[in-house]
Amino acid sequence: MNQIKIAKPILWSYFQSTCSWRVRIALNLKAIDYEYRAVDLLKNKGGEQFSKEFTNLNPKQEVPILFIDNYLFTQSIPIIEYLDETRRHGARLLPDDPVKRAKCRIIAELINSGIQPYQNANVIKKINAEMGKDKRKDWLHFYLNKGLNAVEEILKETKGRYCVGDEITMADLFLVPQVFAAKRYKIDMSIYPLINTINSELENIDDFLRAHPYSQPDFLRI
Ligand SMILES: N[C@@H](CCC(=O)N[C@@H](CS)C(=O)NCC(=O)O)C(=O)O
């Protein structure tokens, strides 16, 4: 009998990258075993994402990248949607109900395009260089608070135990890493009670804990 050999999935990740963390949670929730390839975003002042080898894999020079089913995917949202569409077991990350699905994508997008880009390593590097380190705090606090306010508002309407109702969805995979990053940047999280409550529900779930930066092979206290 002929057997088709399917290679083990490979995730290019950095322990502290919130975008990689989203995908790590999805892989855990879907019980997908994978090989972890660390990409040090800060190494040699430039970072391994700028190497020729990595740029060939992702011209945008960012993690995560996921190799799965013999395809290479970038961008956490399509990666997570692909996993959900091809693996129907485990948590359903995109609800069947079209309204819930849209709300879930809104929350993911508020964080994906409305918050994370402003705190991205290459953006902060440029802010430091062109505006000075003092301005960095104002920049981060302005954009993170603007985005988190919008998330807190939509949660008033969508929340159950988690971001959208009582089942874990893609929105939750975006929330937990973003809260961690906001705390690192010393955002006052006490003004976001719904985000805090939902984050506390989620952060101790085993599949989330195993995806946490502190549990990754490249974890470094920096
Ligand atoms: N929209 C992309 C964003 C990817 C991204 O910005 N990744 C960050 C880490 S969270 C990165 O690799 N940054 C490298 C850099 O800024 O040089 C996604 O969701 O995957």
TrEMBL record:
Protein origin, superkingdom: Eukaryota
EC id: 5.2.1.2
Gene3D superfamilies: 1.20.1050.10, Glutaredoxin
GO cellular component terms listed in the entry, alphabetical order: mitochondrion
Cofactors: glutathione
Gene Ontology molecular function terms on file: glutathione transferase activity; maleylacetoacetate isomerase activity
GST N-terminal domain residues: 7-91
UniProt xrefs under Pfam families: GST_C_3, GST_N_2
All copies of domain GST C-terminal, residue ranges: 97-219
SUPFAM superfamilies: GST C-terminal domain-like, Thioredoxin-like
Gene Ontology BP terms: glutathione metabolic process; L-phenylalanine catabolic process; L-tyrosine catabolic process
Record field: catalytic activity: 4-maleylacetoacetate = 4-fumarylacetoacetate
Entry keyword Methyltransferase: no
Pathway this chain belongs to: Amino-acid degradation; L-phenylalanine degradation; acetoacetate and fumarate from L-phenylalanine: step 5/6
Keywords: Phenylalanine catabolism, Transferase, Tyrosine catabolism
Enzyme class: isomerase
Similarity remark: Belongs to the GST superfamily. Zeta family.
Official protein name in the record: maleylacetoacetate isomerase
Organism from which the protein derives: Brachionus rotundiformis
